[in-house]
């Protein structure tokens, strides 16, 4: 019998000695990464072997490390996964006593322990029932005791794994899918779980298990480096937090970056995302290969039975032509035998376009060969290359895995050098679902479904791919992006006119949605400014489609039927201006019949009059119903405090304000009421939870708010206090600016603040003492951020002088802060 003895440990080395050595090791700055993990595992091996030897173990017993500890990958706060293996010859009491002599010192040090005591037969039986146990045993490593017993178990478990691969690998694939659904995709999460999320350490372990089955193997290029980078990040996270956590929370990222010697948290995330991308791509390729092998194996028995038990010669794989130099084989797009990448610079894009158009993955072997041998494209690109890029982007969702295959081998950056700056770049705004690079691809995917709406689909798709390309540069990304897009469009081979159009669309890709949601569309200056920036109806078409594609690719909070209707209204008005049609004068517009009726009633009674109208808004996604859109009309005699009172009452009733238009209506005597001024408010609101309050309840609370018997500020404060504050990044202070809107109707103030119930109420209260009149308010909310735009005038309707407007903005900012 071969036994393992501790290398350096002695019986006298107790928990205190190990703890001191462990602490010293973890704080050695010169020893990091794999070296530290290996040293920590060796130190722990020696200590546990010493405990084992000191307990005078019976014959036929071994202490075995499994799982991550079996791989000698101990992070500072890792669990110790241990198996006490025995052959059944020793008395149960002796084995139990031995276990206690090992487990209790581990617990006494506060180390997490995952332990079991089993015979080889029991271990195999448990592994057969529990896939996670079997995966842990694949990395079994003997620490002390009967080495032959431990080696025999590992050999047997590996043999079982290979013999059962046809059944076990689909189970493992399902386990990976379930985990991905629960934890998300690591490379796109702001607070990723380094272990459980898709592309994390669990997936890297799964790839090792697939390789151990001998059924398929993962692409090796960069995989070990990626895995090491994820482990290094987890080590730094454990050291920075002092906790056994795998979630890279926002508040920990700066400390983790510093622990790793990185510039900042963004650099940390980019590195983590890149590593996760390597693991994800390797997983996709590997599981596709597993599926192909399993499908081929399941077909052999049927073929054998058809041939009467004779296997027959293996038929050559069928190759179906897709494009010049590209064929389909075994469900993948591969290079034809006659392909000459070294003489055909357009072949990478042609192969990618053919694969995406046919909904096929691009073979990793083909991509690797293209990356190694393909001749660079001339600049500007020939027409064929440009058309293939457009074809690739126009394929929709099937373009994503093909694009990722090109990225995995560095071909995208070779084609579009500026892509490197946005590659794996995180977006700190939680509204965004994707990193910058993936968001650009997703926008092109969304744009592909909108190409029938524009005259130049090719310009739409390329502009979609490039619209945020400036986010890798300092300053306004739209301004930087315009220059980069101009250079890239020329590189791709567009002529001067088309290049200018792409640059203009990239420069103004936020213009429509920002204007529609934050500006008064009845103000002629608003529409004329957009028309001047856009220039032509064709460019307006492209911007309209890109606006929708960009929002849909951002996330569910970025687009709604309400935003879509506002943008469509703006586009209609701008189209009229570009066609030479005159804009109506908002000052000359008469109130609607209903507004006039409500105003008469309010003047007659001296009290508020309300009318609620549900708008016919269809949700963009039937599976995600949108809150009901409502038009709320309120008429009441003109008096101070109307805006904060109405906004506060709506907040109390959990109604989200989208827009508010306030106008004073002078009623003539011939309407049968005494003459006077009535304030008419036209609000667009949405029920926060889908149910609308009753009009009489709103009116009753509004009366109480106006007479001072309802303390709205106190009620809102009570509600906010009822919700526990979540730990996280502190919101920046509010910012109020005077917007250069060139409006003849009002001075425009823009308020940027953390979204909260009653924000518009607080703004209204702050404006009450400023001797200004609010003409209209436009509310835009994305995630936790609100942008409220206020059109204000002096009481006589004139614009505020510049200095007065700046002073008002400062006062409002101070009040909100």
The biggest sheet, with number of strands, parallel, antiparallel or mixed sense and barrel status, is: 8 strands, antiparallel
Structural class: alpha+beta
Oligomeric state: single chain
Radius of gyration, taken over Cα atoms and rounded to an integer in Å: 34 Å
Q: How does this model look, in words?
A:
The protein is built from 32 helices and 16 strands. With 817 residues, the chain is an alpha+beta fold. The strands form 3 sheets. Strands 9-10-12-11-15-16-14-13 form an 8-stranded antiparallel beta sheet. α28 packs across α29 and α28 runs parallel beside α30. The longest helix is centred in the middle third of the chain and has 42 residues. The chain is globular and about 105 Å long. It starts with a strand and ends with a helix.
Topology:
Elements: E1 3-4, H1 15-26, H2 33-54, E2 61-65, H3 67-70, E3 80-86, H4 92-108, E4 113-118, H5 120-129, H6 131-137, E5 141-146, H7 147-163, H8 165-183, H9 201-212, H10 223-241, H11 250-259, H12 265-306, E6 320-323, E7 326-329, E8 332-335, H13 347-357, H14 364-373, H15 383-393, H16 399-408, H17 411-415, H18 419-422, H19 436-448, H20 457-466, H21 477-492, H22 496-507, H23 511-518, H24 524-534, H25 537-554, H26 561-578, H27 593-605, E9 609-614, E10 629-637, H28 642-652, E11 655-667, E12 676-687, H29 695-707, H30 712-722, E13 735-738, E14 747-754, H31 759-768, E15 773-782, E16 785-793, H32 802-816
Parallel strand pairs: 3-4
Antiparallel strand pairs: 1-5, 2-3, 2-5, 6-7, 7-8, 9-10, 10-12, 11-12, 11-15, 13-14, 14-16, 15-16
């Amino acid at each position: 019998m071969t036994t393992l003895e501790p290398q350096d440990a002695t019986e006298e080395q107790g928990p205190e000695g190990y703890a001191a050595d462990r602490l010293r090791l973890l704080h050695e700055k010169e020893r990091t990464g794999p070296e530290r993990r290996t040293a920590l595992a060796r130190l722990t091996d020696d200590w546990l072997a010493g405990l084992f030897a000191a307990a005078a173990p019976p014959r036929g017993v071994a202490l075995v490390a499994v799982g991550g500890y079996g791989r000698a990958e101990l992070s500072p706060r890792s669990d110790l996964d241990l198996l006490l293996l025995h052959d059944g010859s020793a008395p149960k009491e002796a084995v139990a006593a031995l276990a206690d002599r090992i487990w209790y010192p581990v617990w006494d040090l506060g180390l997490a322990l995952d332990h079991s005591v089993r015979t080889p037969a029991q271990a195999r039986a448990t592994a057969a029932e529990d896939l996670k146990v079997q995966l842990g045993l694949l990395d079994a490593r003997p620490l002390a005791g009967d080495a032959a017993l431990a080696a025999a178990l590992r050999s047997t478990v590996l043999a079982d794994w290979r013999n059962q691969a046809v059944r076990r690998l689909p189970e493992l694939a399902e386990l990976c899918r379930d985990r991905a659904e629960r934890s998300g995709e690591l490379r796109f999460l702001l607070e990723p779980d380094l272990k459980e999320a898709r592309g994390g350490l669990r997936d890297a372990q799964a790839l090792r298990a697939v390789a151990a089955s001998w059924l398929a193997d993962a692409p090796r290029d960069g995989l070990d480096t990626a895995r090491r980078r994820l482990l290094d990040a987890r080590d730094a996270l454990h050291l920075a937090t002092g906790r056994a956590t795998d979630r890279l929370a926002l508040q920990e990222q700066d400390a983790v970056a510093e622990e790793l010697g990185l510039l900042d948290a963004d650099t940390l995330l980019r590195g983590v995302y890149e590593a996760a991308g390597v693991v994800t791509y390797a997983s996709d390729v590997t599981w596709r290969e597993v599926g192909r092998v399993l499908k081929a194996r399941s077909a052999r028995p049927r073929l054998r039975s058809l041939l009467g038990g004779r296997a027959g010669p293996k038929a050559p794989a069928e190759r179906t032509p897709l494009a010049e130099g590209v064929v389909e084989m075994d469900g993948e797009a591969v290079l034809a035998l006659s392909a000459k990448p070294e003489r055909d610079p357009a072949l990478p894009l042609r192969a990618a376009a053919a694969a995406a158009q046919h909904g096929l993955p691009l073979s990793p072997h083909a991509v690797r060969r293209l990356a190694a041998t393909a001749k660079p494209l001339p600049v500007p690109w020939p027409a064929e290359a440009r058309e293939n890029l457009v074809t690739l982007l126009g394929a929709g969702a099937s373009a994503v895995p093909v694009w990722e295959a090109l990225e995995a081998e560095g071909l995208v950056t070779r084609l579009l050098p500026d892509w490197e700056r946005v590659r794996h770049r995180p977006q700190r705004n939680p509204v965004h679902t994707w990193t910058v690079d993936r968001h650009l691809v997703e926008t092109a995917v969304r744009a592909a479904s909108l190409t029938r709406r524009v005259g130049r689909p090719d310009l739409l798709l390329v502009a979609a791919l490039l619209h945020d390309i400036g986010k890798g540069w300092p300053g306004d990304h739209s301004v930087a992006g315009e220059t980069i897009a101009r250079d890239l469009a020329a590189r791709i081979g567009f002529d001067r006119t088309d290049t200018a159009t792409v640059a203009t669309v990239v420069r103004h890709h936020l213009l429509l949605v920002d204007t529609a949601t934050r500006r008064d569309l009845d103000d002629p200056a608003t529409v004329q400014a957009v028309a001047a920036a856009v220039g032509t109806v064709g460019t307006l078409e492209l911007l309209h489609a890109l606006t929708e594609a960009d929002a849909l690719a951002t996330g569910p909070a970025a687009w709604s039927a309400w935003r879509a209707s506002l943008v469509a209204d703006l586009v209609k008005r701008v189209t009229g201006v570009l066609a030479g049609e005159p804009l109506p004068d908002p000052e000359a517009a008469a109130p609607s019949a209903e507004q006039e009726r409500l105003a008469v009633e309010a003047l007659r009674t001296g009290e508020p009059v309300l009318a609620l109208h549900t708008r016919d808004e269809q949700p963009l996604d039937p599976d995600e119903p949108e809150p009901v859109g409502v038009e709320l009309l309120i008429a009441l005699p003109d008096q101070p405090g109307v805006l904060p009172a109405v906004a506060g009452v709506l907040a109390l009733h959990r109604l989200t304000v989208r827009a508010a238009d306030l106008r004073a209506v002078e009623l003539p005597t011939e309407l049968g009421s005494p003459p006077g001024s009535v304030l008419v408010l036209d609000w667009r609101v949405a029920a926060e939870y889908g149910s609308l309050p009753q009009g009489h309840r709103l009116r009753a609370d509004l009366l109480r708010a106006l007479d001072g018997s309802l303390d709205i500020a106190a009620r809102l404060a009570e509600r906010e206090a009822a919700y526990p504050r979540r730990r996280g990044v502190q919101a920046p202070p509010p910012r109020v600016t005077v917007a250069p809107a060139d409006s003849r109707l009002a001075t425009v103030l823009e308020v940027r603040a953390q979204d909260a119930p009653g924000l518009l109420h607080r703004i209204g209260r702050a404006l009450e003492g400023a001797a200004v009149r609010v003409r209209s308010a436009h509310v835009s909310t994305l995630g936790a951020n609100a942008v409220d735009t206020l059109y204000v005038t002096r009481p006589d309707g004139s614009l505020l002088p510049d200095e007065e407007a700046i002073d008002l903005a400062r006062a409002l900012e101070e009040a909100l802060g």
